Amino acid sequence: MVPDGNQIIDERSYELGDEELSSIVLERKKRIFNARNLVFLFISISLIVFLFTNLDLTRTIETLKNADVALLICAVFIYSCSNFFKMLRFRALVANSKISMMEFYSIVSYHNFFNQIMPARTGELTYVYYLKKIGRVQTTKGLHSLIITRIFDLIIISIYFVISLLFFYGARTSIALFFTGIACGIVSIVALFKISIIFVTINNILKKIAGKLKINDYKITKLILDQMENITAEFDSFNTQSHIPLLFITSALVWLALYFFSYVNILALRIHITFIETLLGSTGAVLTNVLPINSFGSFGTLEAGWTGGFVLVGMNLQDAITSGFASHIITFFASAFLAVVCKIILKFIKTRSCP
User: Fold this and answer.
1) What percent of the chain has pLDDT over 70?
2) Residue 137: is its pLDDT beyond 60?
3) Please, what is the angle between helix 195-213 and helix 175-193, to 10°?
4) Bigger pLDDT: 208 or 75?
5) N or C: which end of the chain has fewer CB within 10 A?
């Protein structure tokens, strides 16, 4: 249970129990249907309608019918590889855990699936939830590893974006786009090494706000402030520099696999494109998926970002919209397939281990 004002809380060791963690997840689920998400849903529906009005459905159906099934199966395999690299990255951050590779791969697969369907990045919390439920890993360690990986994602995306920009445009590269990519990478690197300071600052601001609003004694206020202290302590005790090589390599492999996944999806639709064009064009979809602006399933917003990115690299509007919807659907089914398979395997392993 959450301690009241008369209980002494060790700010560095206090952790949420299963009941409190479940209550947070329940509270987050309630937020899914709040006004902001309904606005995002309206935007998504509007974007879907707009995209469909610019789509030749006859040509789209013909494109889907002629898709290369072998390449689609290959794409699902590549997606499973991206999950494997994510698992290696998380294992490097969650040290001394007794979670098996299969259990960790399952956690990552569940996390990916819920991120596909839940709006505004609320699916991120499922990683912390399943890490606690399956691996009995402290909540703060889960949050810490999730935040670190997201910072590395931004660093790697920035690097791939700048490289693809230079390869595709060469001397015609937009100075504004080039420096935007560089700036995003630099800000992410600074955040990586100064993250504990950032959390201390946020915690101090929250304390001042709580004091002015006179809500210091509320259980939810204590819970938030205690967890901020614990997360800050987690960052302080983490040796970032010693983990950089492995985290950099695994993050690079994660995104290389995801970009290849998009590339193979487009080739499966028999649309001619180069890998560099895919790398640059899919950045629009990546950014719309990373930012907390998507609605349920990310439909509409992701296709809009995808379409905009690929039109900029020369793909016609028809192919850009078609490949956007097709790739999104394939991603959804690939993540669902892997999550279900992992669930079955874990259940089978648990059944065999029980006398």
Assistant:
1) 81
2) yes
3) 80
4) 75
5) C
CB-based contacts of 337, cutoff 8 Å, min separation 6: 76
For residue 318 the two structure tokens come to: 């028809």
Determine how many CB atoms are found less than 10 A away from the CB of residue 170.
8
pLDDT over threshold 80, residue 289: no
The sign of the torsion formed by the CA atoms of 269, 271, 276, 281 equals negative
Query: For the stretch 108-118, what's the b/e string if a residue is b when 16 or more beta carbons lie within 10 angstroms of its beta carbon?
Result: bbbbbbbbbeb
Residue in the block written with tokens 């809380």: 9
Phi and psi at 314, nearest 5°, equal 105, 0
Directed axis angle between helix 139-169 and helix 240-268, to 10°? Answer: 60
3-state helix, strand, coil in the chain (%, to 5): 80, 0, 20
Q: So what's the pLDDT on residue 292?
A: 60
Tokens found for residue 119: 């709006």
Q: Residue range 154-160: average pLDDT?
A: 93
- Residue 56 phi/psi, 5-degree rounding, is -90, 100
Query: How do residues 202-233 score in pLDDT, each as one tens digit?
Result: 888 888 888 888 887 788 888 888 878 888 88
DSSP E strand stretches across the chain: none
Among 248, 262, 280, CA closest to 154: 248
Rounded CA-CA distance 48/50 in Å is 5
Cβ pair 349, 101 in contact under 8 A: no
